[in-house]
Amino acid sequence: xxxxxxxxxxxxxxxxxxxxxxxxxxxxxxxxxxxxxxxxxxxxxxxxxxxxxxxxxxxxxxxxxxxxxxxxxxxxxxxxxxxxxxxxxxxxxxxxxxxxxxxxxxxxxxxxxxxxxxxxxxxxxxxxxxxxxxxxxxxxxxxxxxxxxxxxxxxxxxxxxxxxxxxxxxxxxxxxxxxxxxxxxxxxxxxxxxxxxxxxxxxxxxxxxxxxxxxxxxxxxxxxxxxxxxxxxxxxxxxxxxxxxxxxxxxxxxxxxxxxxxxxxxxxxxxxxxxxxxxxxxxxxxxxxxxxxxxxxxxxxxxxxxxxxxxxxxxxxxxxxxxxxxxxxxxxxxx
Length: 335
Known about the structure:
This protein has helices at 23-34, 53-60, 74-88, 107-117, 180-186, 198-208, 235-251, 254-259, 261-277, 281-293, 295-307, 313-319, and strands at 13-19, 41-47, 65-69, 93-97, 101-103, 121-130, 136-138, 141-143, 149-151, 166-168, 175-179, 212-223. By secondary structure, it is α/β, with parallel strands linked by helices.
């Protein structure tokens, strides 16, 4: 399958793009990845598209590897087959990239150079901007003591305030690089998440296992925010509310779980009130009922994750974001 030969001084890298009815978006995305200054094997995982995406790929991008899912398995099910393929092929790194994004020519090269300089960096993320190239979408993720993930810098005008390379809590799944040795240790994306906060979950598991997540400001990519999820109605509320509980229950170390549990419940009821006022109470409750139904899996995942923790509780506590998060409706944003 491989058509890229890894040179002794160049790591072997795959880039996985999940796609669901994104034919109109794929061209610019793939053109930007195929023009990267660092060679990369590009894989598109199609989640049962019905818009002709498969024909578009085979006709216009015959060198791109395409994997067809029989239906929509969400972001997690849309990237895990590509990640596993990269691992099976002996890749050193695998990047994830949204089908509604465009990468600057040196995006991948900058991420790789940072990874090579920091061998304990399991995930490296870059400056993910909006298509106007003025406003930020993400410069990494916070995870708050209220249990809510927050994109660092979202919607801010880029004035150079995030131009320092630094350690962050998490990385966006929309444009980041993952070290394959880390994935072999901690596993792939948790498919119970389906979509939303799954990138924070894998970042959290990486942190617990002793890996770091780094932000590289020179790695630029541009995102058409919500191009997919904006058409899905209450989809984001259902999965965000479900995954809000899963993330806290599965990943938060016990001492911090109980320490911040009152703040978690404050945020839970705050989200409940917002959903009720917007006429989406049942969607919010359905998401939480689904999280409750996954309790046996959550207990198993928690035991496995926490039993292999290699860092102190204080280390995790120091990484957490202290400020009060914005209103929940501002969190339900598409990838």
